[in-house]
Amino acid sequence: MTQALFRLCLSLALSALLALPARAQSGIQIQTDEATQNFPNSIRFHLVASSGATIDSVILHYGTNGRTCQSGEVRQSVDFDHGASVDAGWQLEFKRSGSFPPGVQVWWQWEVHDASGAQRLTHRQTLGVEDARFNWHSLARDRVTLIWSNGDDAFGQSLMALAQRSLDRLADDMGVRPPGDVWITVYPTAEDLRGAILHLSEWAGGVALPEYNSVVTGILPGEDDWAAQVIPHELAHLVVGALVFNCLGVGLPTWLDEGLARFSEGLSSDEARAVREALNQNTLPPLRTLANAFPADEARARLAYAQSGQVVQFMIETYGPEKVAALLAAVQSGKRVDPALLEVYGFDTDGLDNAYRASMGAAPLPTAQSLSTAAAVERTPVPTLALWTAVPVTQVAAATAGVAAVTPTALSPATVEASLAPPTPAPFATAAPESDDNPPRSLWLLLVCAGLVGVLFLGGGGVVLVLILRRRRSSSDGRKT
Q: How far is CA 363 from each of CA 49, 269, 271, 304, 341, rounded to the nearest angstrom?
């Protein structure tokens, strides 16, 4: 009997709980739910909603299809005038969050609460980022989408063929392929590029954004030589950047990153000659000094690009493309370049440098004193690669709301140990035997069940029923309640 009553109670309570969300949600109506973009500056989300009770909370949830180490969802509280009908909006500013290039997918949905306790979560919607200031042509082939503004179909076909050859070379010569679909946007000029992607250096002519599998550049019809440089270069940055992406803060040294890109576009005889002359004159800087940045001086920077490309070419031709793929995988797993090189090749950066110099018939590395002097040369950031410095999307929400991003609190070892320890189970309560002057347990279970269902359905009537029954029982026992 007791088990049957328990099952009945559980069934009634479950039915009540399942009925509540539908009842609560039906009170909030959505009249407008839209997003409009003002490229390259912002996206504005707009909601108009109404309810039978005062709407007192509106929260925007949004995110992108970008690669991120943290949750891809931002939860943004929105300010508005409370009332039975509300008009709420919030604007995502690219100058704070970082630019979204054309092709990025932005999703959003609203969470609405009113004073009666009702809530509503709207259906998720998606917006494709586009630059409406230009008229675009598009072409898609083998997981590559290309859009361009100036030029005819033949121009677009030539750029697509160049992109496909570049990706094939990355696969054949380096053993690496893009981890997803690639989006290439070609503006007419480098100036148009810098107007579309905020915070770029004034000398940037192309940019790779591995988090979005996107390349953006500026090329006009007839600029074949420039196209043959920038498209392979940025696609190499894109593929390599996506493959080594990790959440441990480990990346490639500049010489390896730029060397892979330079090898991808093809090394010129002039560059090989410049490196050879520097080796003969004992002025070629140690490879290790090119780990963080390249020299600011233009001549030294050009030599650094050529040297990096030559070293990567030596690695591929001597040890094969499979080793390069294994090296990138080791970095992606969290190993820094020297441990990764030791694992894959059996030598570190200096060992690689000496092996390359030996292959050129040159002397081994300079002394430690010379290396220290070379390291003091003024450095400059590399202009054409969008490095992994984008603000995590959860921090973007705090920044755009004018609130400082939360910094995780350092935990003591004792606290960490305590947090990892399994919780101590609470002792089971021992049921008191039923006395002759108490009603049977089954009757009390039925009364509790009635009270619970009453709370859910009647908003408190069930509590009154239990209190009345309790008063009657107390009165019969001669006790006050």
A: 75, 22, 20, 18, 22
